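In the laboratory, one determines a bound structure by crystallizing the protein with its ligand and collecting diffraction data. In a computational setting the workflow is compressed into a single prediction: the sequence and the ligand go in, and a structural description comes out. We illustrate the idea with 3-methyl-2-oxobutanoic acid.
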Amino acid sequence: MKKWNVAAIRAAKGKEKLGCCTAYDACFAAIADEAGVPILLVGDSLGNNVLGYATTLPVEMADTLAATAAVARAAKNALVVADMPFGSYQCGDDEAMANAVACLKAGADAVKLEGGEAFAPLVRRMTDAGIPVLAHVGMMPQSVNIYGGFRRQGKTREAADRVMRDALAVEKAGAFAVTLECIPSELAAQVTASVSIPTIGVGAGPVCDAQWLVMHDLLGLNERSPSFTRQYANLRGAVRDAFAAYVADVRDGVFPA
Ligand code: KIV
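The predicted complex, in structure-token form:
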């Protein structure tokens, strides 16, 4: 099976569409890796999907590092990207650099951070220091308090121009790919055509070079999922049935036999 690296991800633009997903632990990361998922993102969505928070904001570097190490131990072929948590790169570039280095030391091949033009100098500094960066523009969940909710971005002419400027700025700064989250699909198509690096869409329509799905949405583990996701299994039902069958077997004296 193909071993993915940053150069291979870049080279896939215009040739092969990539279905990428999040991973937060070694067990599921190993299965996704075996299935050929090219990028495993240790998303800060760890906060919502695993740690039980309402947003990604409470996630700490320690959470990200533990999850990244677990995923990296399991991934043989996928590129492992650590999503830098809120507060780990906004409080000063030196601290951001130290936290990005810690992600690579934990086993990540690259880091992801939210931000466009304003974060381009940091993206440049990281890439110059040998840290591949996957940028993230459009709707940035760590800015939920600025938006006043998880709101689709880029809907007006001015807002669309800002998303385009952000994507061009992070490309120029050296990002190897850019996430486009929750923007109109026409805008995602324009950005995809305007940048030389792959765009990875989430809620941004079908034209992007690649797609993200949160693993817990993909596998049907979550009680509710955003409308732009697709469920490829119903593990919530299967897992609940398994727990219920086990409890019943113990109660009825069927297990242990
Ligand atoms: O943390 C996350 O799940 C993300 C998405 C882009 C998939 O950032």
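The first strand starts at residue 18 and ends at 22. Keep in mind that any predicted model is a hypothesis to be tested, not a measurement.
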